[in-house]
Structures are given as C-alpha cells and as structure tokens.
Amino acid sequence: MNQYNEIPTLQYMGSKTRIISHICEPIIKNKSIKTVVDLFAGTGSIGYALKAHKNIISNDLEYYAYIINHAILNGCDFSVTDEISFWNAVEQQSASLQAKVCTAVTTENKFFIDTVDYKQYQLFCEKTPSVFMPQSDDPRLKEILDLVDQVTPGKAPTVETPCLFLTYYANAYFGIAQCCQIDAIRSIIGQIEDERTRYVLLTMLMSVMSASASTTTHFAQYLKVKSKATCNNLIGKRKINIIESCKSLLAEYRQAGLCTADGKAPSVCYNLDFSNCLDSISLNNETLVYADPPYFKEHYSRYYHVLNTVCLYDYPAMAMNPQTHELSIGRYKEDRSVSDFGKKAKALGAFDTLITKCSNAGAWLMISYSDNSIVDISDIQALAEKRYDVLIEKVELSHSKQGRSSISKVDEYIFI
C-alpha cells in the first residue's frame, strides 16, 4: 500500500505514481537533504508526496504543469461561502452560453440515447463548425457558426461571450454542452483576483477535462465517430457534466486541504527550461535535484496543448502541419514548447548539461528514465559516473500504449 500522499489530477503519460516509493524513500531517509528540486514536475506527484518531509521547488516547461504544481503544493484560501458564489456564477454563465446555442445543444441531447443512429451523429459532428473549419450547411449549427465568425485565431475575439472551447473544440475534444460548461467555468475563474485560488480551480477544471475528453489518454488527437461502438464510447464521455464533476473534485481538494491556507511559506514554482531553472536557484550539498525528463520525441506540448489553452485562454493561432501545409488534425496551437530531451540529436547533450550543473554546485542528483527511450541507459550511466558515485535501481513496469489494449514490459531506471 502506498504510504505517500496522493491527489487526483490528470491522466498523465509518464506519471511516477507506480514507482513513487522507490523515488521518495531514499530521499526521505537522507537527512542531509533539506530541499528537493522537482525539475520536470509534470503533475507534481513527487513534490506532493515529499512536501511533508522536505522543502520543495517545482519546475516544468509546460504552463499547465506549472499551474498544477503551484496549486497542489501551495493550495489557496477559498471559503465555502466563496465557493457557493463561484458555482452560482458558473451556472448562470453556462446557462447563458447554452441559450446562445440552444438549437445545437438540444440536437446534441437527442443523440444521447442508446438507440442512436451513429451515422447521423457522425454527420452532425463532422458538420460542426469551428475556427479550423469555419463553415457548415447544417442549420442546427448556425448559432455556433455565428460565434465562429466573430473569432479570429491569434487575435482578441470581437464577441463578448467567452466561447474559446465552443468555437475551437466543439464535437472534437468535447461535446457542445461540455464546451459551454468549460467556457463558463474558465470565464468565472478569470474573474477571481487571488492567484492561488485561480490555480486551484484551474487544476480542478483540467483534471475533469482530462477524465472526460473525447480522447484516449491525452490530447494529441480526438476520437471520431466511426462505428456504433465508437459512437457509444464518445456519447458516454460527452454526457459527463463538467460542472458537476468539478464540484465533486473540488470537494476532494477541500478535504485534502487545498482550499485552506496553512500559513506556511509557499513552495517556489518555476515555468522554465530545465537549464534556466538550475541557473535560477541556489544549489548546494543540502539540495537534491530530481530529474524525470521527457523520454520520447512526442512532446508534452502536443499531448496536452488543450490544457495550456484552457490556462492561457488566449484564442491561440493555429499550427500548420509541416508536411501537408494544412491545419493540424489535432487542432494544435502555434509556438508549442519543445524540450531538448525530446530531440534525438540533443538529448544526450541535455543530460550532460543537467549532470554537470548539478555536480558543479555540489548538489545531489536523482534521475529516472526508461529503457526504451531516446538515450541509452548505458550512455546516461557513463555521463553520471564521470561526476558522481552512482547507484542504479531497476523497476519493471507494465505499460499500455496510449489507450491500446496491448501491454508491454518497460524497465524504469533510477540513478541515485
């Protein structure tokens, strides 16, 4: 049984939950370590597990991950009275949005039955307009098209109604009513002055989005209606009430203490490239850097671009596919961040930079990495042994590939 604190956030690639004891136990036992730098923090499972034992500094290149770590490490002061007012405002905003596209929402609800004709729902989804496809000949979707006509990606919208998700992702990553609910929640979060409260509520929203999206386990591409089975699967996801799910999750967060300020000095969180982060903090022999860098060329900014978008809520410009010179199928935003650890030509050099900077500062270093990744385990070991006395622990894991049923064995190596 896991003895370390956990908190529900995203369904996440590369999550350390399954090996958390292998990572945390030696860190906690080493009493000379006062501060842990979670350098590639992701959803923050390691920092959250260790925060009762060590000072935590968190960093991640992705903005959504920065928000999550700030939220779960620092919490906020959000009273029950404030929460009631928040949900009242959300409900009003959601009702207003759904009224603006009431024909589309009503039509969507009619499809949400067991006896649905999947080909009719497929056609309805394919004809749903968006900034990626700003036209539709389906009169039931004209209200959405009218909003789409007032949105230019990369520029501030001319419509006052918050409608980013409705005009970018309706019947793609989420259903129509779900997009109204997401836009409503996000717009009311944006009205809250306290940063820490905004971050906790954004984490709540992202976590529910992750669990209810029309995807497998990430946002690289959305699922499409191709058969009766895929139709039923999508309808099951799109029937989820985002607002009610958020209320339930926020109750869990409140129980975990995230809605009550504890009076402690907040953990410092960064949103930087790993090298810039190491240059920004004071490393010494009482500091351990825990590094869990990206393993593959598929970048997190691609897999979780929708989460960055909900945090920034900036009506982003759209990325083009460099091969086809057409808009990307996954509806990605422009200028996504890319880590050197995800580039085969640069990954080993990035490891050298990481190891050298930590060693030069006299800091402890722990690295976790998979044996089927860009850099060979032996090459990392060779670099580390030039600078450190190295202990290696191998942990065998079962890995499912992006929602597929097949299971493969993967060895996770922890360099201490």
UniProtKB/TrEMBL annotation:
Q: Which domain of life is it from?
A: Bacteria
InterPro entries to which the protein is assigned, alphabetical: MeTrfase_D12, SAM-dependent_MTases_sf
Spell out the molecular function terms from Gene Ontology: site-specific DNA-methyltransferase (adenine-specific) activity
A Pfam family assignment: MethyltransfD12
Give yes or no: UniProt keyword Oxidoreductase. Answer: no
**Gene Ontology terms: biological process:** DNA restriction-modification system; methylation
Q: Could you tell me the keywords of this UniProt record?
A: Methyltransferase, S-adenosyl-L-methionine, Transferase
- What name has this protein been given in UniProt? DNA adenine methylase
What lineage, starting at the top, does this entry show?
Answer: Bacteria, Bacillati, Bacillota, Clostridia, Lachnospirales
